[in-house]
Amino acid sequence: MKHFEVLGSGCKNCANTAELIARKAAEAGVEVKIDKITDMGEIMSRGVMSTPGVVVDGKLVHAGGMPSGAQVAEWVAS
After folding, report:
1. pLDDT tens-digit profile of 13-40?
2. How far apart are CA 17 and CA 27, in angstroms?
């Protein structure tokens, strides 16, 4: 199971990013766990200054703006 963390204040882009991850995982038949991290201290401690940020299995893979569907599909598949 892949573990995704969406880092952000809970804004619309953050919520949409989490939904996109869930949708792409379902399309690929991959089981994922998605946590939403909203604590700004925690987010900044991970080096994210622009949200949403995405962490996959402990590795920061994206920050600032919504990722594309193709990017998410690649993260889910890898």
Report:
1. 999 999 999 999 999 999 999 999 999 9
2. 15
- Spatial contact of 16 and 24, defined as CB atoms under 8 Å apart: no
The tally of domains found in the chain comes to: 1
The H or E element containing residue 60 is: strand 59-63
Domain holding 15, by residue range, is 2-77
Backbone phi, then psi, for 74, in 5-degree steps?
-65, -45
Quick one: pLDDT at residue 10?
A: 87
Residue 47's CATH number: 3.40.30.10
Residue with tokens 């890898």, as numbered in its chain: 78
